[in-house]
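so i finally got all the pieces together for this one. its three components total, 821 residues if u count the protein bits. some of the lines might not be protein, just check the labels. i wanna see the whole assembly predicted at once instead of chain by chain like last time, that was a mess tbh
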Amino acid sequence: MITEEQVLERIRRARERRPRLRDERITLAHGAGGKATQSLIESTFLEAFRNPALERLADGAVLEADEARLVLTTDGYVVSPLFFPGGDIGDLAVNGTVNDLAVMGARPLYLSAAFILEEGFPTDDLRRIVTSMAEAAAAAGVDIVTGDTKVVGRGKADGCYITTTGVGVVRHALSVDRVEPGDAVLVSGPIAEHGVTVMLARGELDIEADLTSDTAPLHDIVAALLEAVPQTRMLRDATRGGVATVLNEIAKASGTAVVVDESAVPVRPQVGGACELLGIDPLYVACEGRFLAVVPAECAEAALDVLRSHPLGAGAARIATVQDDPPGLVLGRTAFGGTRVIDTLVGDPLPRIC
Amino acid sequence: MRFVEEYRDANRARALAEQIAALCEPGRQYKFMEVCGGHTHTIYKHGLLDHLPESVTLVHGPGCPVCVIPMGRVDDAIAIARQPDVIMTSFGDMMRVPGGSGSFLDAKAAGADIRMVYSPLDALKIARQNPDRRVVFMGIGFETTAPSTAMTVLRAAAEGVRNFSVFCNHVTILPAIKAILDSPDLRLDGFLGPGHVSTVIGCRPYGFIARDYHRPVVVSGFEPLDVLQSVHMLLTQLAQGRCEVENQYTRVVPWNGNPRALEAINRTMELRPYFEWRGLGFISHSALRLREEYAAFDAERIFQIPGVRVADPKACQCGEVLKGVLKPWECKVFGTACTPETPIGTCMVSSEGACAAYYNFGRFTRRRTEEVTRA
Amino acid sequence: MCLGIPGEIVALVPDRADLAMVEIAGVRRAVNIGLLGGPAGGVGVGDWVLVHVGFAMSKIDEAEAAATLALLRGLGEAYTDELNALAGSDIT
């Protein structure tokens, strides 16, 4: 007779196992940033391309070139609708890549941009997108120095896809390896705003709310934090898969436990309302202008002060604490006074009715 | 949020937990079934078990609409969705439910036009916007959701929308509860009644549970304090030797239910002679289909339905879990072959399925969690 | 099994007796009120309803909600009283 403890131990071990790709076809879940994405990356891309820089599977690769330490990162942007309250695919494509460099402790320098356009796409829309890219790049202090354009037949793409690649120089050595029990986990502002805004902007749910995406370049607030608190262990921007996914990555990669104080997680009322209505947990919804910072506990207050004095960090909060046990798990202390496991999401967060 | 936040108060929960502990007879074990998957979700999402004494066990019941859908019905729906002019619509909950050969998500990846909707009315809207396509709504859910489908059919009929139909998989909760009460291998001390189903059917229909099976029923709300209070009410009944149907969720559930909603169901739908439930087998008069008068909106009459019957995988013990005979972790394949990433049984798919809830939110052990979070 | 969320009716929809705008924490959606009894569903602006898949399933009874909370508070107070009594009792 197997005991409950043994089964739970089995689950714990299963969680630690590398996911395998068993699907015969790519489904949307493979692009959602959760377990399915992880299994695709690890079983397909990592298997084929394996090298030390890639193996870290961080937001970007740290590269040594002569005397310099560079970070190289790339990201493809697909969003529907292309224009949404608070931004569009253009500033998303710049900010997202700038942020991946920033959270690697790098100063963003140069970007490339590649466009895949659908036959029939209005040039006015393209101009609008490019203008907001230019503005976002200027705001982030980066130049877009090279690019590419391809056009595919009508119906072969959804209007416009953009891929940007970014290069930056490393200023601070940040790494998940530096995370230690006792550390505090901070978030730079209210979560889930981008994901909920875009979900509602598609119009399919017929839900109205005065929400705007949080898309923003984080290089400046990150620089301020790292200057004031150089002891910062690591940073990660909470994009696809949301805060919960990042916390799980931290717990697994550092072999620690992350205990979240759920009532401390900042969520704007409207975002919370939309999530309740759709049966979605905001911890799993994407942000495009928020990051998580792991800092030594004694630096937490100083770090929060720095974040909160920056316009992009007014809503910063300490949301979790790192512990040594149980390794690899994220636990939530619920506002109701209970405990739950906060697992990595399997696929997209889907609206549910039950 | 009003009517929500005030029922999530940790201090009140602690006070109530003490009261619950005080009501438990020393040495006695209590086993209550929460019929509804919504309660299962609440229990895990809020860590409610941390407030219950060891002697009180909550058993997850059959009230999860996607968990009880047999694999063959999913395959049938996919067969409809594959027809070239069809747009299949359903709730997000359905997307990952495995049939005998894949889920909606898989069928979508293979080219079928399957769309998620928030309301059946949104499916009707898609039908209006796509007059050259046949739009099918996969209706799932208990009596809570059936009236929305019924109202949508009535609206489609009134507007004369001819390219809209419903693949009706609505089920009724009472026969399932009765099937569970009749299963010989189960000992339950009482039921947490499904709150939102009861907004429609009211509290009276549970009378037979108290009268014929001598088990107390408390119709419960879905916030964590609602559930705790309902457990308190069940224990109070047992302590006083009573066996009644009580309503904890009075702010939402009228004793007599919602006559208009019942009328909408009755106008458009009738009971099927029998319907297959995942894990529970065939249960007579346990599901709804569209009436003859609405045949024009009935996907089962419009399309050639293969009528696929897929036996539940042998190793899968969803039935025992749905009946509450087995705890999720006692199933042979739980956590090994059957996980949220590769679900074998439907209980592992829906976030309110007993197995997925236990897998995702389940504490590794009560004591261990407490140690860890106090550290 | 069925996600139901309380929302406040903020407007009735002109020309559509079966629709009302419902607000949930600042989020709005048109909700069908055809399942509620009476003309215009027997509800008006300021009433709270339980929303499920775009339909109002029932009108929330504010008096009952207050009664449930009072009961919960009462249970809490009984507990506090007991604790106080325990603290005040002299067992030496």
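Residues 364-370 of chain B have pLDDT under 50 and may be disordered.
The first helix of chain B runs from residue 10 to 23.
anyway lmk what u think
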